[in-house]
Amino acid sequence: MAKKSNCKYIFVVGGVISGVGKGITSSSLGLILKNRGLNVTAIKIDPYINVDAGTMNPTEHGEVFVLGDGDETDQDMGNYERFLDINLTRINYMTTGRVYQTVIEKERNLEYKGKNVEVVPDIPLEVIRRIKNAQENSKADVVIIEIGGTVGEYQNMLFLEAGRMMKIESPADVFFVMVSYLPTPFNIGEMKTKPTQHAVRTLNASGIQPDFLIARGATSLDDKRKEKISLLCNFLPDRIIAAPDVDSIYDIPLNFEKEKLSDKLCKIMDVICKAPDKSAWDAWKSFAKHAHNGKEVVRIAMIGKYFETGDFILSDSYLSVIEALKYSAYAENRKPVISWLNSVDYEKNPASLKELKKYDGIVVPGGFGARGVEGNLQVVKFARENKIPYFGLCYGMQMMVIEYARNVLGLRDANTREVNPNAKNIVIDVMESQKEHLQNNRYGGSMRLGAYKAQLREGTIARNAYEQKEIIERHRHRYEVNPAFVADLEAKGLVFSGRSPEGHLMEIAELPKSKHPFFLGTQFHPEFLAHPLHPHPLFTAFIKACVKQNKK
Ligand code: GLN
Fold it and tell me: What domains are there in the chain, each with its CATH number?
């Protein structure tokens, strides 16, 4: 698409504070350019030393988003996949640790041919190699590269240096968008530009002048402040795009287009683009509208433990689950209202279980370790006995199986090896392939990760929801249903409706509809494949059951 077949690279960098929507901005830039007929891919750079996000606690880092090839990445990769409706691979994700690891391996292999290997330029050169590799792999016309953190942080300097070096080599192909925050302090009552001025100058000190400024703030920035930033930070006024807080992230691409951002970007990049794709845009608009309609709600209890950060509650750890619930609820003309309930609380106060009756459905998402497990098991029992729709994701499915073994099969001490390796009835056991990793403390990137096939049993909830016999879903687990207990569990009514093609791994457990309106768990993570315009069939089946529950 691009003239002279040159690919264009847009770096997205943050100013002032993190957490103001660089990821959503990057995804939205991608979407509006895709809508102009350009082939877009996106890369996330995380400046930490960790080789991937898999070893981090979700309360530190947010959700670990698993790609089809099993890479454990940042939640922004999920935003790119959802907004752009594409599948990304490990090529699209890098961390400082990953970049250094490659450079050091190359050095050990004598690939630098005896040269003195230096932080600059060898580290930025490896960053550039990776960016170009992602472009070649996707044949993208435009590559969006989001650099995590904010300018001025020691951690992301080498990545900015890579951007600067690319710009020197190919000035007409490399662009920078800064997403900065303009605070309106309560006691002043006026939007302040000074922190953004400093941020732009800090970026200037790295040898980079941003081409566009996305001005995040509680409100839209006015002409007076636009003029000030334009004058003091070297932007033409129409390169400053107001991005006020919104109720729904899915409005952001629409807001960008109100400012004609795709036109402006195509113009400075000098690419030939098509007129906006009307039918795709209308589909997005009608999807985005759902967040605003004053429609009926569906009340979901999300039982987790990764919400607390200091005195604050953060739902980032479960981002894909929340989005997946939205897509399916919107498709059913409902608005999901999610309550965050801590599983640990049910251990301290089991009497509060009865409050779960207020909800139309219960979700137990993924998790690790023993904390909160007994609380979770009580929730599962309550949902099963009171016929409240229940959806278990990974750990949530393992909880279902343990609860069933304890309370229906009468195996009182049933447990997962992860929690109690001394239990007599280990109904969830470590996978054979995992034993060696655990013995050798090889935790990083060693779980059963990424896309695997499963086959569905006729006549089950799962089979009817997917309307296909074979599925491919993304995984992230070390433990599995112990095959030794499968026959007994099935004899007592639990149905394993999804299994690995060889038949030995239980992928979905459910109770028949005649016994419970929706009691289903998956060993995989269906939330990673839910996209705005393609809600996930199992989430939709769950929401439908919740809507029915609501009508009772
Ligand atoms: N801790 C469980 C396992 O490793 C479940 C993992 C998860 O919920 N992602 O098997």
Answer: 11-288 (3.40.50.300), 293-551 (3.40.50.880)
